[in-house]
From TrEMBL:
Keywords: Hydrolase, Signal. It comes from Nonomuraea marmarensis. One of its GO terms (molecular function) is hydrolase activity. Coiled coil: none annotated. This is Glycoside hydrolase family 10 protein. It comes from the Bacteria. InterPro entries: Divisome_Glycosyl_Hydrolase, GH, GHL10. Residues 41-357 form the Glycosyl hydrolase-like domain. Pfam families: GHL10. The lineage of its organism: Bacteria, Bacillati, Actinomycetota, Actinomycetes, Streptosporangiales.
């Protein structure tokens, strides 16, 4: 870049006219929001560690290789203007972090309980934060082991220490959701992570009671006899899950009020054939099959967001994508619960349905989502396909829908407030050499948004993201072209300050 000059001046201020500066254009009419560039939208990707689906690519890699693989995933996400990662830190009562409560995960070293020689979680979080991304720690609450023998578990494993907590089912071990001790343990594990690590969110996926296995029965008779209190079995099981959700919600927010708690349920709550208020679908029902009552979580406010896994294409007879988006949007309307949609990136390019052979199917899903004001974003499963980019679908989506960055949706119940506006390192109106703008860090700011005002002078930064060129975590930015820029401070929940104006000449 050629040597240029950057001039800083505060909100509402203008530098004195000189041979090197020009007066900014007068304000014009209010901007009409451009739906192509939403100001706020969550754009996330799931990073699955179980069975080494996404990261690490295989067990036993050296720490440097593990770090390099993770950075590659985040760089791929950042390139497409994603702003959140959902990283699985507890696949099956194990830990991808240093824990006194559960053993090290086998997916790090290949041996359950073996110390990998480093604690990955601070690195995973820091790398996400460096790129302006939220980090959601993803836990599986009830899966205890992929095998069904407690004797083969590490000595300190909770299911080995408390075999009465575990139920054998489908060749695996599950914690019994009907036991208060199980709920307390799961809550303790999650609270431990929230207290010790700088996570932005706690996340559950769709696994609660296990998915049905033909010819097998989940043996919780003793717990039901002790705690059922006259309820029907199905209702008691749903109540057990609801109790855990409420308990975790309370514990997370008591530990750190700004940490979000959300769940990614199976995409069908109930079918209309089972319940008139259900969706016009005919697939498996989460309410009836795995005792997950997402409607109750929304109604009671025990989650901050729901992220239903709508892993079917448009026009799919049993579970049409558009039908389900409308149903979930209606469910969260007039609530404080945010709605994001789980997208089946892993199915793109497969023969599961003809629609998945079309490179524009995912982009069409996001277009449908944006037609519903209740939908606040999308999350993609999973990171492996983010890298392989089947049919070029993610590149297409980035070009058509994510060509600009976006701030995260505000969540008023989690608190936070806008930091002070950035202050230039040089006095207002003084010259800085080169096109790089720099400013003093604002107290409480975790990132900064940089907008470029168009030549017309029309400032639309409060309306949409058409002029948002970057979200940076360092208090500096290298302009690629001359003009007027606006810089705002963002707290960890993306509350935004008033802007400071910067004039860059001769880039």
């Amino acid at each position: 870049m050629a040597t240029g000059a950057a001039y800083f001046f505060g909100p509402g201020e203008r530098p004195a006219a000189s041979e090197n500066t020009t007066t900014a254009a007068a304000p014009t009419a209010a901007c009409k929001a451009d739906g192509r560039y939403p100001k706020r939208e969550l754009r996330g990707v799931w990073i699955a560690t179980t069975m080494n689906i996404d990261w690490p690519s295989k067990a036993g890699l050296k720490p440097d290789r593990q770090r390099a693989e993770y950075v590659k995933i985040l760089d791929s996400a950042a390139k497409r203007n994603l702003n959140a990662v959902f990283v699985q830190v507890r696949p099956a009562s194990d830990a991808l972090y240093k824990s006194s409560l559960e053993p090290w995960s086998q997916y790090l070293t290949g041996t359950a309980g073996k110390d990998p020689g480093w604690d990955p979680l601070p690195f995973l979080i820091d790398e996400a934060h460096k790129r302006g991304m939220e980090f959601h720690a993803w836990f599986n609450p009830y899966r205890a082991s992929y095998g069904d023998s407690t004797a083969k578990l590490p000595a300190g494993h909770p299911a080995r220490q408390h075999p009465d907590w575990a139920v054998k089912y489908g060749g695996r071990l599950y914690y019994n959701p009907g036991l208060p001790a199980v709920r307390d343990h799961v809550t303790k594990v999650i609270t431990d992570v929230v207290n010790r690590y700088d996570v932005d969110g706690v996340h559950f996926d769709d696994y609660f009671y296990p998915y049905p296995v033909a010819g097998q029965t989940f043996d919780d008779k003793a717990a039901f006899a002790k705690y059922g209190k006259g309820k029907k079995l199905a209702g008691w099981r749903r109540d057990n899950v609801n109790k855990l959700v409420a308990q975790v919600d309370t514990a997370v927010h008591a530990a750190k009020g700004y940490v979000k708690f959300g769940i990614s349920p199976f995409g069908i709550w109930r079918n209309k054939s089972n319940d008139p208020s259900g969706s016009d679908t005919s697939g498996m029902s989460a309410y009836d099959s795995i005792y997950a009552d997402a409607r109750e979580w929304i109604k009671s406010g025990t989650v901050d967001y729901v992220l239903p896994q709508l892993y079917w294409p448009r026009g799919f007879k049993a579970a049409d994508y558009g039908t389900l988006v409308r149903w979930w949007a209606d469910e969260v309307e007039d609530s404080d619960v945010q709605l994001y949609i789980g997208q089946a990136l892993y199915r793109v390019g497969t023969k599961d349905d003809k629609a998945w052979t079309k490179p524009g199917e995912l982009a069409a899903h996001v277009s449908l989502d944006r037609e519903r004001e209740q939908v606040d974003g999308d999350v993609y499963f999973s990171a492996k396909q983010l890298l392989t980019n089947p049919l070029g679908a993610m590149d297409r989506l980035a070009k058509t829908h994510y060509s600009r960055p976006a701030l995260l949706p505000l969540m008023k119940d989690r608190g936070g407030q806008a930091p002070a506006a950035p202050a230039p390192v040089v006095p207002a109106g003084a010259m800085a050499v080169g096109p790089r703008m720099s400013w003093k860090p604002s107290a409480g700011a975790r990132a900064y948004a940089v907008y470029q005002v168009p030549k017309s002078g029309k400032d639309c930064h409060t309306t949409d993201a058409r002029n948002l060129v970057a979200v940076v975590t360092d208090p500096s930015f290298a302009a690629k072209s001359e003009g007027t820029y606006l810089i705002t401070s963002l707290d960890r929940l993306d509350h935004e300050s008033k802007p400071v104006r910067v004039k860059v000449d001769a880039v």
